[in-house]
Amino acid sequence: MTLFVTGKDVPKPWGIAAGMADASTARALTIDTPLRVASNTKTFVAATVLRLWEQGALALDEPISPLLTPTQNRLLKSRGYRTEKITVRQLLSHSAGLYDHADDPRYFKALLANPTHHWTREVSGGNPASGYRQPLHAGFEREECAIKSPMSVHAY
Question: Is 39 one of the annotated active-site residues of the chain?
Answer without folding.
Answer: yes
